[in-house]
Amino acid sequence: MSENQNQPLTTASGIPYYYHEDSQSVGARGPLLLQDFILHEKMAHFNRERIPERVVHAKGSGAFGTFTVTHDITRYTRAKIFNQVGKQTRVFTRFSTVGGEKGSADTERDPRGFAVKFYTEEGNWDLVGNNTPIFFIKDPKKFSDFIHTQKRDPYTNCKSTTMMFDFWSLNPESLHQIMFLFSDRGTPYGYRHMHGFGSHTFSFINDKNERHWVKFHFKSLQGIRNFTLEESVKMKGEDPDFAQRDLLQSIDNKAFPQWALKIQLMTEEQAKSYRYNPFDLTKTWSQKEFPLIDVGVMELNENPRNYFADVEQAAFAPAHVVDGVSYSPDKMLQGRILSYPDAHRYRLGANYEQLPVNRCPYAINNYERDGAMRIDGNGGSSPNYFPNSFDNIKPDPAYQQAPWELDSNVAAHFDRNGEGENDHYSQPGIFYREVLSAEDKQHLVHNFVSAMKGIDGPRKEDIINRQLCHFFRADIGLGMAIAQGLGVNLEQAMPQKHTPQSA
């Protein structure tokens, strides 16, 4: 049929029909007939158009593109994606706000999700992180409690500054991340002008089965650009979809955004003696001690033809690593290995990896069968069990994983703030003193003061003073500036049993 020829309107099962706008009824003004299945189909499908939105990262934008290897790192990893300088791999990248609902403004103060799906010849590799190298917590048992504070109060059904700072003030491990969040990095100018991080510690394994711990950094080649608090609030009202529109239009206009992928590496021996737990998600690795190593460039150059099909149904999981890339003892990573695929099976169904945006474009051989929305032929008449006498699918010993040498054989509930794990102030202090410019410091204080003025209720003073104690312990100048901005008596706010660092 030619493109200019009319094509018949059909049902979802391909049956042509005519009455798309008029329902069957008994007479012009009588009741409708149960037999009008077109009416049922249209209404039933409409009722199901909205799949459950993501509990976190609900509002997002995405695009396809390419990753190109620019530097040789084969001595560190045998992953085939990196096996040749100049090699290109197709990618899909999704950016998102973390705490906002699907209809929220994408200029809100919030971390930004930064997730990349690499379609490699050895399976899909999902590198799922944020625009910050750290996070609010370091044990996955705390995740649901934390996210509840970022959502809506169960009584008012409104966002609550009191809930947020109550939680943060009771969890000093959050300080490093909220310093990032309340700097202007918490309100990036769209998605093109921010860095991305794998955040967790992962591992590289080379062809000799040697392991290095690794952190991933995506550096924006557009340069960093952020909104101030006032600019972000203004844009929230003018265009709540600013970041989505900015990314879409830049690609439509062929101003393709790019990020340089760099890595930090740490040997297993270095990890044993590093002054911080290298697997603690609330900590960074010093770039002076573990300098960035160039790997390649990611370019986004193709907008999805349909937002729902690709961006909304995209499913990323830190569990999805390829040969030559592996996990680490990072407790938050270990928790996400379980929770992300579980969330996708709930939201999209057991066969979510068959959806085009999630499907591996290379060979898939397994014995998974059935389930809702099976769309790939379900294995046809081939066996659905292993071992069997009828096919030639065999486990390949070349993909055996290198064993881990564990430091302990004790299983227990270890205190996440125990000895050696309880320095929550050194790195936030370094971030304030050494990373932020004088203007950035002013904005950080202004942003904290503006937010904390929203704390209310009978425990207002307790929450504010607890949080101020954390600021003082990170840097006395920071604590004084925020306390003064809030009009708090400094003698009451100063910690009594801890000598703060000098500015």
Automatic annotation (TrEMBL):
Record has Oxidoreductase as a keyword: yes
Cited Pfam families: Catalase (PF00199), Catalase-rel (PF06628)
InterPro entries for the chain: Catalase, Catalase_3, Catalase_AS, Catalase_clade1/3, Catalase_core, Catalase_immune_responsive, Catalase_sf
Highest taxon of source: Bacteria
EC number: 1.11.1.6
Top EC class, one word: oxidoreductase
Catalytic center residues: H57, N130
Residue ranges annotated for the Catalase core domain, each copy included: 10-394
Residues that hold heme according to the record: Y340
Cofactor: heme
GO MF entry, a single one: catalase activity
Any one annotated GO CC term: cytoplasm
Alphabetical keyword list: Heme, Hydrogen peroxide, Iron, Metal-binding, Oxidoreductase, Peroxidase
SUPFAM superfamilies, per the entry: Heme-dependent catalase-like
GO biological process: hydrogen peroxide catabolic process; response to hydrogen peroxide
Keyword Phosphoprotein: no
Record field: catalytic activity: 2 H2O2 = O2 + 2 H2O
Family: Belongs to the catalase family.
Protein name, entry field: catalase
Organism, scientific name: Deminuibacter soli
Taxon lineage: Bacteria, Pseudomonadati, Bacteroidota, Chitinophagia, Chitinophagales
